Amino acid sequence: MIMFLSGGVRSGKSSTAEKWAVQSQKQGGRLLYVACGQRTDEEMDERIWHHQKRRTTSGHRWVTVEKSLDIGEIKVEKADTLLIDCVTTLLAGEYFREDKRADHAGERIVQDILTLAGKAHSVVIVSNELSFEAPASELTAHYMKSLGDIHQQLVQASDRAMLVEHGIPVVKKGVMECGE
Amino acid sequence: MHFVTGGAFNGKKKWVTAFYELERTPHQWHSFYDEKEVPALKEKMVVLEGIERYVRILLEQTESPADARALFQKSLTEWGQADAQVVLIGTDMMKGIVPMNAFDRQFRDAAGWCFQDAAKAADRVDTIWYGIAETLKEEKK
């Protein structure tokens, strides 16, 4: 099962994604939190702390995996549920790494995620909405295109896709029960 | 007339191609990204891509958002009366920070107004989110 959700900054998408992951957790399976952000400064540490705190007080046991590149290499078991947070930080890592091509970053990410989804019980993927602004430069335009292409492919591969607006989930694909 | 919009890189073109089965339907595809001029409509099925770019072209000519809009409305009337299924594809770029540059602000205003006019003139309006359409308007023919 692949679930995709996207939203603006601080739209409540991470908590919704965590809820989804917990609900689809299989008995005996682990809850894996794949943290893709790179610790670059104190502000980033603060963000990470905020997310960690929510998970430790959630009453569920999360195993955190910090990986911002080649996430397809993460060792998963058949019963595991993964929460990948998030595609934009993954793209930042894959796009600007020096040992591999930037224009293949999107393909690598989609491939890695589908590999994990093929091995695990379910995968919940979080991403950020693309901006509606005219891109400021060629680089921004290419970066936006990469992110848009990834989103299109993930939505197509997903069983459920939703857009979270101000904490309210808008279902775009698949069916959800009320209160889920 | 059918107006298809949504953010950049959301799969609008792909959706239109699949929805109208364009791979096996004779059609005319005009992109305002490549051609500045409004084409003569030659087929029963016509797709006009890059409507926001067309608005930009009109704004460059008139240097006034209101005048650009008036010209755009004329085009809409022609397309609406044409003996063809006309599909307009336009990228929504109206949800960002106010641009620093005055022309960019005018462009955004003009595009916003023209998109409202396109939505009004169209009998069907869809917005595309990563390949999935949400129908905002659909009138019975």
TrEMBL record, chain A:
- Stated EC number for the protein is 2.7.1.156, 2.7.7.62
By its UniProt entry, which Pfam families does this protein fall under?
Answer: CobU
Q: Which GO terms describe its biological process?
A: cobalamin biosynthetic process
Protein name as it appears in the record? Adenosylcobinamide kinase
What job does this protein perform?
Catalyzes ATP-dependent phosphorylation of adenosylcobinamide and addition of GMP to adenosylcobinamide phosphate.
Catalysed reaction, written as an equation: adenosylcob(III)inamide + GTP = adenosylcob(III)inamide phosphate + GDP + H(+); adenosylcob(III)inamide + ATP = adenosylcob(III)inamide phosphate + ADP + H(+); adenosylcob(III)inamide phosphate + GTP + H(+) = adenosylcob(III)inamide-GDP + diphosphate
Q: Where does GTP bind?
A: G7, G8, V9, R10, S11, G12, K13, S14, A35, C36, G37, E66, D85
Q: What class of enzyme is it?
A: transferase
Which residues are responsible for catalysis?
H51
Keywords recorded for this protein, A-Z: ATP-binding, Cobalamin biosynthesis, GTP-binding, Kinase, Nucleotide-binding, Nucleotidyltransferase, Transferase
Q: In which pathway does it act?
A: Cofactor biosynthesis; adenosylcobalamin biosynthesis; adenosylcobalamin from cob(II)yrinate a,c-diamide: step 5/7; Cofactor biosynthesis; adenosylcobalamin biosynthesis; adenosylcobalamin from cob(II)yrinate a,c-diamide: step 6/7
Does Aminoacyl-tRNA synthetase show up as a keyword for this record? no
Q: Which SUPFAM superfamilies match?
A: P-loop containing nucleoside triphosphate hydrolases (SSF52540)
Fetch the InterPro entries from UniProt: CobU/CobP, P-loop_NTPase
Molecular function as annotated in GO: adenosylcobinamide kinase activity; ATP binding; cobinamide phosphate guanylyltransferase activity; GTP binding
Q: Which family does it belong to?
A: Belongs to the CobU/CobP family.
Automatic annotation (TrEMBL), chain B:
The superkingdom listed in its UniProt entry is: Bacteria
Q: Which UniProt keywords apply?
A: Kinase, Nucleotidyltransferase, Transferase
Under the heading InterPro entries, the entry gives: CobU/CobP, P-loop_NTPase
Answer whether the UniProt record assigns the keyword Kinase to this protein: yes
Record's Pfam families?
CobU
Q: Does the keyword Nucleus apply?
A: no
A single Gene Ontology molecular function, please?
nucleotidyltransferase activity
One of the GO BP terms on file: cobalamin biosynthetic process
- The name this protein carries in UniProt is Adenosylcobinamide kinase /adenosylcobinamide-phosphate guanylyltransferase
The species this protein belongs to is Domibacillus enclensis
